[in-house]
Write a structure and sequence with these properties.
The chain has about 260 residues and is mainly alpha-helical. It has 11 helices and 4 strands; from the N terminus they run ααββααααααααββα.
């Protein structure tokens, strides 16, 4: 019971910190919207329709959702490093709860905050001509949360081993931006160069962005929305299975890493 309460308190603390940080809330909206309306609108006229009824801006919109969720959840590890530098993390680790509960609470907090930011971006779907039904939104929520939890657990794992804010920021940028740009968020996954196709398919974020796009825009065997892996076109459930396996592995490693904190 103490462990469950510990998970809840850590999760709730992360939500409160996000709610009271208005500049963070505003910035989390402006950055992806700049990508969508500047980059997407600027190239939409040149790219034309990727499939009938879907232009480049509409194609990018699910990728922007995935980017927002990924970047928010991954960067949540900053709070772990910050808490360590302030001495707060040491107090948490000596509390009468398991250290695995600390990792779980931080991961869930990061995932929830990232999910809220992703939902906020969904509000702008009508502005670029993406029609979302209630059932589509309900299907998107667990996909977004799975991506957020998987990337959040990776960020927490790294933060558990990195001691300084500067080092974590450098490592975060080194990993996060390639993961975003090689996830298929901004380009179709068909007819890529061999080297890029390999990088895209070993990138776990790819399997989070693809199902979001498939649900939002529709999926078909000949569309540029899916992933072709070893001659097999990945279904939504295939992508979910790969991402879930990665998320479980990262969560277990993050919990183990917190258990070995000094």
């Amino acid at each position: 019971m103490n462990n469950l309460r510990g998970v809840y308190i850590i999760w709730y603390r992360d939500l409160l910190r996000f709610w009271h940080d208005k500049m963070r809330m505003i910035g989390s909206l402006i950055f992806p919207l700049l990508f969508l309306f500047v980059f997407g609108s600027g190239l939409s006229t040149r790219m034309g329709f990727l499939v009938p009824g879907v232009d480049f801006a509409q194609f990018m919109f699910p990728g922007i959702i995935g980017m927002t969720v990924l970047m928010s959840s991954f960067s949540a590890g900053i709070s772990v490093v910050w808490d360590r530098e302030l001495g707060f993390l040491k107090e948490v680790l000596v509390a009468p709860i398991s250290r695995a509960s600390v990792a779980m609470g931080k991961t869930l907090g990061a995932a929830t905050v990232a999910l809220l930011q992703g939902i906020a971006i969904l509000i702008f779907a009508p502005l670029i001509g993406v029609s979302l039904s209630v059932w589509t939104v309900l299907a998107l929520l667990p996909l977004m949360f799975l991506l957020a939890a998987s990337m959040g657990s990776l960020g927490i794992l790294l933060a558990a081993r990195i001691r300084s804010m500067e080092a974590f920021t450098a490592v975060m940028q080194l990993l996060m931006f390639p993961m975003v740009f090689l996830s298929g968020a901004f380009f179709p996954l068909q007819d890529l160069p061999v080297w890029m196709s390999i990088l895209v398919k070993i990138n776990p974020a790819t399997y989070g962005v693809a199902p979001i796009r498939q649900v939002m825009l529709g999926a078909s065997a000949d569309s540029p929305f899916g992933i072709n892996l070893l001659g097999h076109t990945m279904s939504i459930w295939d992508n979910v299975a790969v991402l879930a396996a990665f998320g479980v592995a990262m969560t277990i490693l993050a919990m183990w890493s917190f258990g070995n904190q000094e």
